[in-house]
Fold each of these.
Amino acid sequence: MNIVICDELLNGTITNQFEISLESDSLTVRDLITKRVSIEIENYNKRLPQYFNGLIEPKEAERTLNGYKLKPKQLIDVEKQVYIALDAFQKNGFFVLVDNEQLEELEQQVVLKSTSKISFVKLTPLVGG
């Protein structure tokens, strides 16, 4: 199943949107966050573009209007970024909404439909490794 993920501000403005493929329509919040972060890091590492636009700001990055700029261009550690994202979720660094319902626990089970809207709402800049 393909599903659209949006990054949003508190006022509802969408700052980033992309599609991911899921093997199952049922997964935990932990699995959803892990999948999302892993995919965006893997995509970045394949291309090494000038800017990274993702949930977690890499530690060595400079924040710019176009995203996070790594100097020099370098691979980002997927495992480290996933750990930071899971920790940030538990500390309310961002909210995850599915069909406008806030998910609150990493082990919470989520059942998705092909029309489900998944939103990641960042509350503070998330700096990773």
Amino acid sequence: MPEPYQHFNFLGLPREIRDAVYEYALCSFSHRRGPYDITQCAGLCSWTDVQICHFTGDLNLLLVNKQIHNEGYKIMLERNLFVLVQIHDSTDEHLMIRGHLPPVFALYSAYQDEREQVRPESFPWHTMRIRLNEKNTTPEEMAMNGEYNDIVMLLEDCMDILKRFELRVTDEKLPDPNERLLPMRLPIKVVVDLNPKRKECNRETSYMNIRNSHSDIEQKKLLKHIGDTFRGYDHFEIRNCDDKVLAAEVVQQVSKDPVISLAFFQAHIERHSHSSEASWNQGNIVECANFCTEGLELVHRVRFSAPLTYQLCDQGLQNCFHTSQFIHRLYYLLARCTFAHLSKLMDKRIEEDNYQYIGDTAHALFDLLKTHRKRVHGFLSHYDPPIHEKAEINYMKAKALRVEWEFYSMRPWGEMLRCIEDAKRLQPGDPIYEEEERKAKLWLGENARYNVWVRTIDWEGYQTMRYWRMEIDKSVFEF
């Protein structure tokens, strides 16, 4: 028989040891890291989903007795600054967030399809609330259109998400008198509440009387993160801040545009372009992808800085040509890294739960290749890639489309075949392109056979097109 548990006096331990136990048990986070983390780089300029990884601390420790509860709760809130982020359901955050996001460590989340779960307001963990909604939406319209989607997350994760929100959008139909693009503000209103009212609690009394209204030092710490993160927001409001002057300064700071010097931008892009090229030549695709990602993140921020864009163009055509060439190399090498890694994965046995991930990656790769010339407007309009790169880009686009449709069991369409035909036209006689064209035509032809088969089968034994094609012709089911 197993030996009975040995009891010991936990409260008899020194306070430093107890605090270490509290921190280990109540401040630990974990996330499910997928096996294809490099492929997430392809989503740098694609629509990004917030990957929520839930808090894994052992909250039962807080229920032992009142002293342990008070000590542990205090440590938990000192080490973990939680923020309640509320996004109105009429605001699609996935269309505004750009760039690869690391997993978000969230204590709790509640969406409208989780009606049976307790709302985050019942959890007294958050020390600040940030509410996002469209700037012209009134409270009455919010009540009619639905509720907020709530996520209680760590402060640092919240800031990482918010700094990747698009600061500006550009309408190509509205040129200025000098035929330049007019930048316009993102139509988002941000409300920051430093002392959010909680259920059955007022501003002066928090959960179990442990944390009262934030001190001036705590408020300055929270506002520092806000001031360092947000830029270019006209519709910004701070509530329940005791230091009104500080709040006004942060609001003014947030409304300013990001300032990046032209010399720094050009040196940064050139350095990362050369570094990524060297890593690719050495066969280190992970390092190459990281260099590309870091360089393109700055390109993305500059895209919304109209003065810097105009200054770059005013330097002359040759200057803009070299800059656009470096930017193209970053996009091109990032696509090659993603494509090479995805190709290697397909040689291995793919588990069922990874099908969705591979399909998403293939879609991000296609989106990256299809629209990268339009992302920075004038930067890339002066540089035309060589023919062999154009052919390779079309080849990668065709293959990415085929893999995406393969894993999603989607109905194929002619874009895939047009891409590979363009690759063959630009670089005729390439056996790799000819083989991809053969697979594309077979893929399109089998769609008609599959539709006939679906109409004749017993739906209890229904199979998706993916598995049907694996049985019909396994040679086609490959990257």
